[in-house]
Q: What sequence folds into this?
């Protein structure tokens, strides 16, 4: 379980949600759908859209679940709320981007039980006011989306030699990055780079 | 006795280096100057990348550490003589940065860096890395350009063996490595001598090597309908014998206790045969080594916990009747027990 957030300023909440505790690159949440589906910009954007819709509304509704309910029941309720949110989200996304959603396969409905929902519900809702909670959730989702889209762009460029579906004339294309194995490696490299950046920021702040 | 406890890492690496240089010489004889360029490029990039990573990590550079050179030579010999230069560089950088330095550098690797590097490029550029030029009798030459024309390339002997079930070349050609394949991995005669040399010098684990050889050899003999040529073909092709020496018995990734090494060898041998015969995978030993590497670590952990159990429950004591204080002492006793058993 993550450490509770105890920052007060909105700036800190945004920084932590997007970078310091980035859901995918630092906390390692919702990794499987990203590795399996986000191998191009369009597919990464689809994942980001589906994730944002389902997670935001599930977390929003979950915040009203009474805190005195037994933990096990609360978890089941989060999954139930996620399933309810999934229905309209699926209808909407299948209407606008049917092909892309179809390509996500099982990983689209699996977003209903993504670990971020439980993590945020169980750590933030007990400690923060509704306003700060919403701020944290929104920027957490933005942080995930930004990371996934960047990941998709890099993967598409080095794995397929295209950007947004257009050939960009890369001298060397590393096909392996279009596969889950390469996706895993790339995600690890990105996570390591983010840690380096965070360390540099920390050093600058300390100075 | 714990593996390599009596032999320094420098001595092991020197032994490995001697064998790899001999194999490189044969590869250059068979394939000409381009083979030399590929091998030297691979070794140079590995050494340079290793040095850069060490500097970036602010670690001390040890002059005697030639592990990067060994990785580079191993990797170079696993490539076809026609490998594009960018593929060689990519494999070398991946092997050192991702498979070696990312895990903490020399001695901390989980996977054999050369195996990881080769796997990376064989997934990235299969059409360049898994097609091979024919062996030439004279120093006739594969073009030195990065991309060799595809009309001089062909499928490997192993691919034909996997597809048809029979060897496309004679036993003599198999023994001297005169067939299309990775440039330094099929010379059975030299590899056999090298294996004996390295085992006698205690530079590779004899237990792992023999358990792997026996398990895979017997399995192939049975699966091929008792055909000895198929067994020879299996060991010569697909980097099997080369992989057994330089990848699966690699000093930094092989388990530390004798019992673990025996099991590890059996597992690697079994996976290699299964992958080659049932999933029709070329160079199956590279995959087997990667798959089995975490199992080797787990086997070591089991041995250590078994040793701990013996220490606490059955009261293994040192000579002065005091409980064992460190794991090294425990491992020594466990290995001694293994030997007696």
A:
């Amino acid at each position: 379980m993550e450490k509770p957030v105890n920052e007060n300023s909105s700036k800190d909440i945004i920084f932590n949600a997007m970078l310091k505790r980035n859901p995918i690159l630092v906390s390692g949440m919702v990794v499987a759908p990203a590795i399996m589906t986000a191998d191009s910009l369009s597919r990464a954007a689809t994942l980001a859209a589906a994730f944002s819709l389902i997670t935001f509304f599930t977390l929003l509704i979950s915040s009203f679940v009474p805190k005195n309910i037994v933990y096990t029941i609360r978890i089941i309720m989060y999954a139930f709320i996620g399933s309810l949110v999934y229905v309209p989200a699926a209808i909407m996304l299948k209407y606008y981007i049917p092909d892309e959603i179809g390509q996500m396969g099982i990983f689209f409905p699996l977003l209903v039980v993504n670990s971020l929902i439980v993590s945020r519900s169980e750590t933030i809702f007990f400690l923060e006011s509704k306003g700060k909670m919403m701020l944290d959730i929104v920027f957490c989702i933005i942080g995930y989306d930004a990371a996934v889209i960047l990941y998709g762009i890099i993967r598409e460029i080095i794995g397929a030699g295209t950007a947004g579906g257009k050939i960009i004339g890369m001298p060397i294309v590393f096909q392996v990055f279009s596969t889950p194995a390469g996706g895993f490696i790339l995600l690890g490299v990105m996570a390591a780079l983010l840690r380096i950046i965070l360390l540099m920021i920390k050093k600058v702040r300390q100075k | 006795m714990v593996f390599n406890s009596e032999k320094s890492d420098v001595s092991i690496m020197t032994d490995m280096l001697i064998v790899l240089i001999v194999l490189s010489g044969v590869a250059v004889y068979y394939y000409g100057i381009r083979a030399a360029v590929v091998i030297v490029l691979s070794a140079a990039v590995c050494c340079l990348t290793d040095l850069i990573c060490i500097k970036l990590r602010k670690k001390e550079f040890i002059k005697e550490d030639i592990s990067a050179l060994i990785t580079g030579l191993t990797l170079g010999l696993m490539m076809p003589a026609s490998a594009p230069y960018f593929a060689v560089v990519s494999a070398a950088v991946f092997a050192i940065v991702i498979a070696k330095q990312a895990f903490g550098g020399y001695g901390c690797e989980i996977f054999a860096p050369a195996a990881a590097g080769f796997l990376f490029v064989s997934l990235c550029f299969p059409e360049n890395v898994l097609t091979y030029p024919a062996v030439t009798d004279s120093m006739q030459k594969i073009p030195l350009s990065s991309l060799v024309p595809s009309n001089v390339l062909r499928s490997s002997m192993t691919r034909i063996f996997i597809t048809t079930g029979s060897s496309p070349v004679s036993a003599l050609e198999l023994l001297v490595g005169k067939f299309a394949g990775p440039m330094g991995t099929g010379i059975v005669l030299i590899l056999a001598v090298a294996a004996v040399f390295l085992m006698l010098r205690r530079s590779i684990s004899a237990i792992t090597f023999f358990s792997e050889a026996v398990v895979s050899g017997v399995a192939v003999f049975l699966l091929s309908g008792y055909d000895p040529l198929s067994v020879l073909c299996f060991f010569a092709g697909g980097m099997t014998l080369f992989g057994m020496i330089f990848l699966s018995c690699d000093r930094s990734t092989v388990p530390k206790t004798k019992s673990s090494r025996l099991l590890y060898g059996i597992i690697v041998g079994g996976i290699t045969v299964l992958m080659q015969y049932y999933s029709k995978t070329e160079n199956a030993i590279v995959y087997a080594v990667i798959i089995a590497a975490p199992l080797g670590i787990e086997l070591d952990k089991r041995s250590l916990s078994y040793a701990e159990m013996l220490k606490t429950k059955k009261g293994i004591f040192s000579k002065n009747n005091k409980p064992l204080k460190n794991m090294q002492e425990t491992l020594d006793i466990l290995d001694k027990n293994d030997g007696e058993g």
Residues 38 and 76 of chain B are 6 Å apart (CA to CA). Chain B has 15 helices and two strands. Confidence is low (pLDDT under 50) at residues 315-324 of chain B.
